[in-house]
Amino acid sequence: MKVEGESGVVSTHDTKDEAVGVGRDVAKDRGVELVIKNLNGQIAEKDSEGHDPRNVPG
Description:
Elements: H1 16-30, E1 34-37, E2 43-47
Antiparallel strand pairs: 1-2
C-alpha cells in the first residue's frame, strides 16, 4: 500500500482484499480519498470515505 506524499511502500499484504481493508481504515482516519488500482495501474475504484460534498446539484 502506498500513501500519496510519502516515499515508498507503507505496507504489504497477501491479498488485494486485505490491502483494500487497511487502505479504507487509513483513508477514514486521515479523511482522504481511497484510490484502488488494478495490477496494470489503472484506477479500479475511488472512495472518499464519507467526505462527499452535500447539496451538490445534479
